[in-house]
Amino acid sequence: MAYKISDECIACGACAAECPVSAISEGDGKYVIDADTCIECGACAGVCPVGAPSAE
What we know:
Layout: E1 3-5, H1 14-18, E2 24-26, E3 31-33, H2 43-47, E4 53-55
Antiparallel strand pairs: 1-4, 2-3
InterPro entries: 4Fe4S_Fe-S-bd, 4Fe4S_Fe_S_CS, 7Fe_ferredoxin, PSI_iron-sulfur_center
Pfam families: Fer4_7 (PF12838)
Organism: Candidatus Faecivivens stercoravium
């Protein structure tokens, strides 16, 4: 299942820069992951300073 970003997101953009398929974009107050594009690699979770991305 695709990763999702929780409300813990601080909108720093670290995850978007790390995503190899550009599935992450800036949303309204937090970043969001396009589930159809996400390849579930976990790169976003590895760089997030607050642990917002997670597999659901």
